[in-house]
Design goal:
The protein has 335 residues and is an alpha/beta fold. It has 15 helices and ten strands. The strands form two sheets. A seven-stranded parallel sheet has the order 1-5-6-7-8-9-10, with helices on both faces. The termini are close together.
Length: 335
């Protein structure tokens, strides 16, 4: 029987795994590193609105899987003034000291499970940062009417992200980074693929080239419809598209990807993580994903959230157990 790490690599490389990878089981996700602490502070469900290092006011409503910008606050009201209004946090100046990293690294060593790789956590990507700063509606309008200014802002955010990745890699030495940016909704991208390629894609090149050169797996969380830009995601060295929604034609994407990218997700969180989700529904959705996407390879059944866990944690155990059942039936795994 392959180890968790061996089975994970066999899966994402299009080789011969001996069972399904169960969600995030190949990773030890240790949050609270100095970069995220400096930028976001102590975020938790039910928190009061509070500013982050960008000056954005953020909230985390109870019962939601993550934080969001406060809809009642908009920092950047005019894209033409972004250079005067926005102060990009200086991560190198504020997050480089060894004394900041020592307690986190000690905790990470304790919390890293046997036969897993350490995964760094990098939420709020370039597009997300844009709508955190100026609101969702203005962000979409500005993509259309001020593409040059938006491209400049995107590159500034991309450089900030690059600096954060460098600090994580140099201090944590992670095997993978789960980096977030949602580029669409359930049925379409937020901006046309051509605009995405013109404005957003260049802001990722430096950071993702660096991670690729350092041998760090790029696990990009994007619980969105992104079929039109699959080749671009591969071009950016994304190793695993985490959060891939079943509204994407995952079978077609597996054929198109041909082992160049793996797909982690496929479970509809609206089915498995509701207040009234039944065990039968959760198991049926998990089986559907395993049976539909498993034969295409390079697939990890998982919820579409960008880190381990659900709102209703009891569902996670049911999902994992059903994945084991599918592994026994479809792989003949002795689990």
């Amino acid at each position: 029987m392959l180890s968790r790490i061996e089975n994970f690599y066999a899966t994402i490389n299009g080789e011969k795994p001996d069972r399904f990878v169960k969600q995030y089981e190949a990773f030890s996700v240790v949050k609270g590193d100095p970069v995220n602490q400096f930028v976001r502070g102590n975020c938790h469900p039910g928190m009061e609105p509070s500013p982050d290092a960008w000056g954005t006011r953020i909230i985390w409503p109870a019962g939601e899987p993550g934080l969001i910008p406060d809809p009642n606050f908009q920092l950047l009201k005019d894209i033409e003034t972004w250079q005067e209004t926005i102060r990009v946090p200086d991560l190198i100046a504020n997050c480089s000291a060894e004394a900041l990293w020592e307690p986190f690294l000690e905790r990470a060593a304790r919390e890293t499970r046997e036969d897993t790789m350490l995964m760094a956590h990098a939420p709020v990507g370039v597009f997300e940062r844009m709508h955190f700063l100026m609101g969702f509606e203005d962000t979409l309008v500005n993509f259309m009417v001020e593409p040059e200014l938006m491209a400049d802002l995107a590159m500034a955010i991309g450089e900030y992200r690059y600096n954060g990745f460098r600090l994580m890699v140099e201090n944590m030495h992670p095997g993978a980074i789960c980096t977030h940016d949602d580029w669409g909704g359930k049925t379409g991208m937020f901006v046309q693929p051509e605009l995405w390629r013109e404005i957003l894609k260049p802001s990722y090149v430096k950071a993702y080239d660096y991670l690729h050169e350092q041998g760090v797996l790029i696990v990009h969380h994007c619980d969105s419809f992104c079929e039109p830009i699959l080749e671009d995601m591969i071009d950016l060295h994304i190793d695993v598209w985490q959060g891939v929604l079943p509204q994407n034609d995952i079978v077609k994407l597996q054929q198109q990807g041909r082992g160049r990218i793996a797909f982690m997700g496929g479970l509809d969180s609206a089915v498995v993580d509701r207040d009234d989700s039944t065990e039968a529904e959760i198991r049926a959705e998990t089986r559907r994903a395993c049976e539909t996407y498993g034969p295409g390879g390079c697939f990890i059944p998982c919820t579409t959230y960008g880190s381990p866990g659900l709102i209703h944690m009891e569902a996670a155990e049911i999902i994992d157990d059903e994945i084991d059942c599918c592994s026994r039936r479809m792989f003949g795994a002795a689990i």
